[in-house]
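Progress narrative, work stream C.
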Amino acid sequence: MLVHIVMFKFKEENKKANIIQAKQMLENLMGAIPSLRSMDVGVNFVEADRAMDLSIIAVFESKEGLDSYDAHPEHQKVVTFIKSVVEYSKAADYNRE
């Protein structure tokens, strides 16, 4: 299994609404993308300099599954929206043994 983690820092403008919309869009990918086995989407509640605003943990059976997810048109719609409302993001991918 491959685990894909992404954390997002949102721009201040319309921050709360954009976080809610991004969360809903990400959650809607479950069932829409066959290679996506599971996804946890969480909104941060702790105020700290190093805190990120929204995080996802997605699980795929393989690197090919992640690649398929990344290229999927529904995922690309989410990417387009998120890129327009975040300052930056960080990601990590690893194999779960």
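Work stream C, second folded protein:
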Amino acid sequence: MSRIEEIEDAISRLSPEEYQSLAHWFLEREQSKWDQQLDHDSASRKLDSLFEEADREGQCGLLREWPQVK
């Protein structure tokens, strides 16, 4: 049995509360990794073209509220 299969088996035996806790941990971990990547990309100026495009579209009145206000 591979490590992944062992982990999958262990997860399948968790109580609903334990499963929820694990799911929350994974979500927090992924969000943190995403935030770190965005910070890195922003600091290295990889996102500058997107910011410039948004500025141009804002000046032309092409942007709208997000999420849209109903």
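The mean pLDDT is 93. No further action is required on this item.
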